[in-house]
Amino acid sequence: MSRIRRRPRPSRPSARMAALATTAVLAAALSACGGGGGSSSGDGKTDLKAGKKTEISVNLTGEQAKPGEPVKVTLADGTLQSVTVTDAKGGTLVGKVSADGRTWTSERSAAPGTTYAVEAKDAKGGTARATFATAAAGKVNKVSMVPGKDTTVGVGQPVSIVFDNPVKNRAEVEKHLKVTTSDNTEGSWGWMQDYSGKDRVDWRPKDYWKSGTKVTLEADLNGVDSGTSGGWFVKDYKTNFTIGKNQVAKADLATHRLKLYRDGQLVKDIPMSAGTPGGDKASWRGKTVLMAKEGTINMNSETVGLGSSYNKMVDYSMRLTWSGMYVHAAPWNHDYFGSANKSSGCIGMSDADAKFVYGEAQVGDPFEITGDDAKGTQALNNGYGEWNLSYDAWKAKSALTGAAGTTGN
Fold first, then answer.
1. Alpha-carbon separation of residue 126 from 49, 51, 82, 94 (angstroms)
2. Region for 113 from its dihedrals, namely left if φ exceeds 0, alpha if ψ lies in -120 to 50, beta otherwise
């Protein structure tokens, strides 16, 4: 009678062992890469020198780690040689190893909704790996930036960033904004509420830009928290531009003349008529900046609160403020050019003169408007009014170096 031997079934791993397997990536064991590794011991730790295992630990773990914190990698024993932290898109968090060689900390914080892979190498050639993912942002903040990329602008153009959502952590956000210039131009950030009601921060040089200066703005905001009601930034932004002709337009409300200067030399002296003094139709005075060249547009006084004074197509329109002050052709007002201010708030001139200015003007050119026939000085946020502040007053609006604080306007 033959006997049949039954082989015992392999036992299933216990729940505890399965749990250990899933967390192994967060406390990865170092092992020699390329020759001569030590043998593993039962406790999962190594000492490369003695052939025993050791561990790294990462401050952020799991699939819902808190974003907005630097990544910190710590080696239990030995000295770290390097640490690489990459996301799924190939982006890398740069960091530094501590003086004792035991800890590496990223310079930037982990961004929300991102999976990261950590690779640590020690001085003896051992390697350990770990992964973690951050929780997704419940609310995302975005920005719009001026000037646009690869543009050329005038000497008065500030860098301007408008945020979709409120920014309470202004100092933290400002830390991640960097303006680099080809000639080390001095300047400062300043916070305000935009004409639209949104939070805004501008960077203005101490004095007008020098012609030919190249400027780069890097807004490394990915992983930065805006604060209460603002949400997280989930990407970085970058733009660059060049300063064009050194050109300034000076409009005198008293003499009714607009003079265009280039490199300090008078290019053209133009008779004009500005806003009717004594009421809402008066022009603004102050140092403003040409915001846009809009060409032929429909102008309706009702859209700026002036009733039904006019509704017409206007040529060679150049915007100076959000509230509707322009420089443009106004042939219907020719009787007053050079003699009286009789417009509904804009600076008007003949078709030929407006065509000339339109052709020569650059977005970002300063328009310096002087005279008593004005309804006041242009507000800071009504276009670009920062040149009406002294440089010290402007710097006081920085959340880092001034008195603006983290929430002030």
1. 11, 11, 11, 21
2. left
Q: Write out the H or E segment, with its range, that includes residue 329.
A: strand 326-329
Say if residue 135 is exposed, middle or buried (CB neighbours under 10 Å; 0-12, 13-18, 19+). Answer: middle
Co-location of 37 and 118 in the same domain: yes
Q: Report whether 339 contacts 129 (CB < 8 A).
A: no
Per-residue pLDDT, 148: 96
Whether residue 73 contacts residue 118, with contact meaning beta carbons closer than 8 Å, is answered with yes
Residues of the domain holding 184: 143-243
For residues 218 and 308, state if they share a domain.
no
Verify that 87 and 120 share a domain, yes or no: yes
| CB contact at 8 A, 251 and 277 | no
- Tens of pLDDT, residue by residue over 253-284, are 999 999 999 999 999 999 999 999 999 899 99
Query: Are 208 and 287 contained in the same domain?
Result: no
Question: What type of residue sits at position 139?
Answer: K
Count of the separate structural domains present in the chain: 3
- Verify that 115 and 26 share a domain, yes or no: yes
* Separation of alpha carbons 89 and 29, rounded Å: 26
Please tell me whether residues 283 and 372 are part of one structural domain. Answer: yes
Q: Which helix (H) or strand (E) holds 391?
A: helix 391-395
One domain for residues 348 and 258 = yes
Q: Do the Cβ atoms of 22 and 28 come closer than 8 Å?
A: no
Structure confidence at residue 308 (pLDDT): 54
The per-residue pLDDT for range 87-119, each reduced to its tens digit, is 999 999 999 999 999 999 999 999 999 999 999
Q: In whole angstroms, what is the distance from residue 33 CA to residue 100 CA? A: 23
pLDDT at residue 120, as a whole number: 95
Asked if the structure places residue 393 within a domain, the reply is no
Residue pair 369/301 in contact by the 8 Å Cβ criterion: no
Q: Is residue 406 in some structural domain? A: no
CA distance linking residue 57 with residue 71, whole number of Å? 11
Contact yes or no for 373/285 (Cβ under 8 A): no
Domain assignment present for 85: yes
